[in-house]
DNA sequence: ATTTTCAACT
C-alpha cells in the first residue's frame, strides 16, 4: 500500500502537519514517504520547525509535457476575479550553466492533484527536482505559475534555496494568490529576500508559455481582452507588497 | 461592477 520508494514498513502521519483538508495552504501529505528514519528516536521537533523539508514527504511525481490550449487559456487568464480557477499550474524550465552560458536541461508542467496527495505545485517541483539535482552544477530554474505561491510553499522554497545555493529561481505569476493575506505577502517578501525574482507574467511571458508548454498544433496565441491592463494592476499590487 | 483564490460536492 505504500509507495515504491518508501523504506518504511508502516508510514505514519507527519508530526507537524494537520490532518484536516480545506485550508488554502498546502496542508501536507496524506501519506508519508521518506524522512522515515530521521525522527525515529522520538525526538519530536518543535511544531513549525522551518528546517524541515516537508516536500520530502511527497513522493516525486513526473511532470506533464504539455497543456491543452483551453486549459492554458482558462488557467493563465490574468483577470482580476478569477472564478473557478481551483487548480494551480506550474510551467517550469530548468537550465544549467556551462562555461558561463545556459544550457537547456528540462521543462514541463505540474498541476496540483488535490484528490491524490494535496501537494501544491511548488512542492511537486521541489520533490521532483531534489530527486536528481547535482550539487556540482549551477541551475537556473524558471517558474510560470497560474497562481503565485502560498505562504507555506514560499517558506519551503526559501529553505530549499538556502540549502542549495547552486540553484537560482525566477517566478512569474499570472495572478496573485490571496494577495491581501499578510502571511502570503510575507511569503513573497521572504522569497525576494532569498534572491528569488518574483514578477507578474507579461504578454511576452504568456506568449513564451504558449510556444513552449502548450500543445497548440500550429495555432497562434490569441491574447484575451484586458491582458495588458490586468498586468499593470497586478504589477502595482506586487510592488506594494514587495516595497 | 463583482471580491475570487493549489475545492468539494455529488
Ligand atoms: Zn502552496
From TrEMBL:
Its cofactor is Zn(2+). It comes from Ceratotherium simum simum (Southern white rhinoceros). SUPFAM superfamilies: Cytidine deaminase-like. The lineage of its organism: Eukaryota, Metazoa, Chordata, Craniata, Vertebrata. This is DNA dC->dU-editing enzyme APOBEC-3C. CDD domains: cytidine_deaminase. Residues 69-191 form the CMP/dCMP-type deaminase domain. The keyword Nucleotide-binding does not apply. InterPro entries: APOBEC/CMP_deaminase_Zn-bd, APOBEC_Cyt_Deaminase, CMP_dCMP_dom, Cytidine_deaminase-like. Keywords: Hydrolase, Metal-binding, Zinc. Residues 1-31 are annotated as: Disordered. The gene is LOC101402772. It comes from the Eukaryota.
